[in-house]
Design brief:
There is one protein chain. The chain has a 5-stranded mixed β-sheet with strand order 3-2-1-4-5, sandwiched between helices. By secondary structure, the chain is an alpha/beta fold. It has 2 domains: 44-89; 123-348, Ribonuclease H-like superfamily/Ribonuclease H (Nucleotidyltransferase, domain 5, 2-Layer Sandwich), CATH 3.30.420.10. Helices cover 39% and strands 9% of the residues. It has helices spanning 10-17, 21-29, 34-52, 59-68, 75-85, 162-176, 194-203, 219-233, 241-256, 270-280, 299-302, 304-311, and strands spanning 123-131, 138-145, 150-157, 182-185, 206-209. The protein has 12 helices and 5 strands. The longest helix has 19 residues, at 34-52.
C-alpha cells in the first residue's frame, strides 16, 4: 500500500484489501521491532561477508565467516535474510575433456582413493583444466596438498605440453621442499611422459596414477576444479590469456589459499588450517571426499546410504549419473585387480 499511495487512495486500497484505514496508519507510525532492527544490522554484515568472498559464499560459509568475527547466528536465518536481500552463492557449470592418453607407461595407483594425509607434503594430487578466453583456451595445471587442500604449485600455458605439469611440480617442490611425497594424477599423456617421469625421479617424488576415465580416482583435485569453475570461470569472461592468468593468480594466491573457508577443513582456509595444525604440534587430517573404494556399480554391496555418504556429503549435492568430468561414462566400473607393477618401486617407473 505504501508503494502505491501516489496511484490509489489509501481508503480505496484498504477497502479492497479488507483492512481498516486506522490500522494501516497505526502500522505506518509504529517503530520497527527489535527483531527487524537486528535483521537490518545482520543483513549489512552478511552483505559485507558476501562481497568479501567475491560473491561466492552461500549460507554455510557466510555463517562460518560471521562466527569467525564473533557473530553467532543460525544458518536458516542467514539463508532467509540472503534471499530477501537478493544474495546467493554460485553454482557449478559443465565440464570439458582435458585428459588425453598416448599409450605412455603409467605409474601404479599408490592412493587407491584413500585421500587421507596426516601431515603436509605426504600426498599431492594433480590435474589439468582449461580456462576459456576470447583468444582461445589457456590450460591450468595444479598440485594440491591433500592434508590441507592448499594449492602448492600451479602453472598455465596455451598448449597441453608436458612442460605445464613440470612447471607446476617445480613450483610445489620449490615452495615445500618435500621428502618422499606421493604425486597422484590421472593417466594423461603429460603425466605418463618421459620428461615428467625423469623430473619425479630427480626430485625423489613417487608418481601415482588412477584408473582411466574414473573421476573418483582423483576426486580431491576434481573437487578443487569444480570450485574454481563455479566461483571464478563461470562468472567471468576473459578477453586475453593475460587477463585469465591474472584472475587465476588472484583467486588461488589471494583468495583460495589464504582466505576461502573450506567445508572439509571445518570451515577454515587452507593456510589457517596448516597454521593451527602447526601451533598444536599434532596432525589433524582434513575430511576427505572418499576414504574407501566405492563406485556406483557396487552400491548393492556396501548399501546405497553408505555409498552416498562415502562419495560425498549427503547435504552437498545430488548424486549424478555421470561419473567422469567429460560426461562420457554413465557408470564407473570397478578397477582391475592389482597388477604386478602395482608392487614395483617408484624408481622403476620410467
Amino acid at each position: 500500500m505504501s508503494a502505491n499511495r501516489a496511484v490509489f487512495p489509501v481508503a480505496t486500497m484498504c477497502r479492497v484489501l479488507g483492512v481498516s484505514s486506522s490500522g494501516y496508519y497505526a502500522w505506518v507510525k509504529r517503530p520497527a521491532s527489535q527483531r527487524a532492527e537486528a535483521d537490518a544490522v545482520l543483513v549489512e554484515e552478511i552483505r559485507a561477508a558476501h562481497t568479501a568472498s567475491k560473491g561466492t559464499y552461500g549460507a554455510p560459509r557466510i555463517q562460518a565467516e560471521l562466527a569467525g568475527q564473533g557473530v553467532r547466528v543460525g544458518r536458516k536465518r542467514i539463508a532467509r535474510l540472503m534471499c530477501s536481500a537478493g544474495l546467493a552463492g554460485v553454482s557449478r557449470r559443465k565440464f570439458a575433456v582435458t585428459t588425453v592418453r598416448d599409450g605412455g607407461r603409467q605409474a601404479p595407483d599408490l592412493v587407491d582413493r584413500n585421500f587421507v594425509a596426516d601431515r603436509p607434503n605426504l600426498l599431492w594430487v594433480a590435474d589439468i583444466t582449461y580456462v576459456p578466453t576470447w583468444a582461445g583456451f589457456v590450460y591450468l595445471a595444479v598440485v594440491l596438498d591433500a592434508y590441507s587442500r592448499r594449492i602448492v604449485g600451479w602453472s598455465m600455458a596455451t598448449t597441453l605440453h608436458t612442460q605445464v605439469v613440470v612447471d607446476a611440480l617445480d613450483m610445489a617442490l620449490w615452495l615445500r621442499r618435500p621428502r618422499d611425497v606421493i604425486h597422484h594424477s590421472d593417466q594423461g599423456s603429460q603425466y605418463t611422459s618421459i620428461g615428467f617421469g625423469n623430473r619425479c625421479r630427480e626430485a625423489g617424488v613417487r608418481p601415482s596414477m588412477g584408473s582411466v576415465g574414473d573421476a573418483y580416482d582423483n576426486a580431491m583435485c576434481e573437487s578443487f576444479f569444480a570450485t574454481l569453475e563455479c566461483e571464478l570461470l563461470d562468472r567471468r569472461r576473459f578477453r586475453t590469456h593475460a587477463e585469465a592468468r591474472i584472475a587465476v593468480f588472484e583467486f588461488i594466491e589471494g583468495f583460495y589459499n589464504p582466505r576461502r573457508r573450506h567445508s572439509s577443513l571445518r570451515y577454515l582456509s587452507p593456510a589457517e588450517f596448516e597454521r593451527r595444525a602447526l601451533d598444536r604440534g599434532a596432525p589433524d587430517p582434513a575430511i576427505v571426499l572418499a576414504t574407501v573404494k566405492a563406485w556406483p556399480g557396487n552400491v548393492g554391496v556396501i548399501g546405497e546410504a553408505e555409498a552416498t555418504a562415502i562419495l560425498d556429503r549427503r547435504c552437498a549435492r545430488r548424486r549424478s549419473e555421470r561419473a567422469g568430468r567429460d560426461g562420457k561414462m554413465i557408470s564407473a566400473e570397478p578397477k582391475d585387480g592389482h597388477q604386478r607393477e602395482d608392487n614395483m618401486p617408484s624408481d622403476a617407473i620410467r
